[in-house]
Amino acid sequence: MADDIFKALADPTRRKILDELADRPGQTLFEICSRLSVKHQLGMSRQAVSQHLAVLEAAGLVESRREGRYKFHDLNTAPLKRIAERWIRPDKQEKT
Fold it and tell me: Among residues 3, 39, 66, 87, which is most buried (max CB within 10 A)?
């Protein structure tokens, strides 16, 4: 599972998608495409963004829900917390 998360985070476009979902949860594919185009000057097709979202969903970083004709996407930070907890232990002090 951690491999999927690191693979998903390795791509800068996917990180920008996660940033946009962190900034504004519950976006449709159209909204995500628009924000990537306007804020990040990324002229990507809807299909390309959809493929990035599929990778993020497979890694558990994005959850989607359908409401009528629309599909809304939300950031899921739980997998990131599990990875952080894997190496960062509260009982050990950081050495500087």
Answer: 39
Angle, in degrees to the nearest 10, between helices 2-10 and 12-23: 100
Residue pLDDT tens, the chain, 96 long: 789 999 999 999 999 999 999 999 999 999 999 999 999 999 899 999 999 999 999 999 999 999 999 999 999 999 999 888 887 776 665 565
All residues at 6 or more sequence positions from 33 whose CB lies less than 8 Å from its CB, including other chains: 44, 46, 49
Looking at this protein, which amino acid is placed at residue 90?
P
What contacts 24+ positions apart, CB below 8 Å, involve 64-67? none
Q: Strand (E) positions, 3-96?
A: 62-67, 70-75
